[in-house]
Amino acid sequence: MSTPSQEDYLEAIWVLTDEKGYARVADLAERLQISPASASKMVRRLHDAGLLTYERYRGFSFTPQGRRTGRLLYARHQILERLLTQLALGSREDIYRIVEGIEHHFDVTRLEQIGRLVSYIDEHPDWWAKYLDAGPDSLH
Q: Are residues 85 and 57 part of one domain?
C-alpha cells in the first residue's frame, strides 16, 4: 500500500477532482500547503506506482486503481471525522487535526466496522444521546 504521505496526496487529489472535476499540481500544492515542486515530485511517484497517469506539462489523472484508492482514503477520512464528531471531541478544526493524525493507522477492513458503527449512531440518535448523557463514569 501507499505511504502516509502518498495517502495524503491521493486523498487531496480525490477531493480536488470531486470539487472541480480535475486537479492540477498548483491546486494540489496549495491544498497541501507545500511547494509546487514537491507536489510535482509526488505526482511523478504516484504515476510510477500506477496510481496516476502523468504527462509533463499536461497534467495528471487517476488510473482505475488510483481512483479506487483515492475514494477509499477519502471515505476513511469522512468516517473517522463523523465518528469523532459524534463523540463531540472538539471543534470542526480540532476534529480535522485529530483525524489527520490517526487516519493512517486504520486499514480498510477496520474502517468498514467503524462505518457500520457510525451509521448505527446516525440511525439511532436517541440511543446515542443516552450513551453520551451517561458519561464516562457509567463505563466503570
A: no
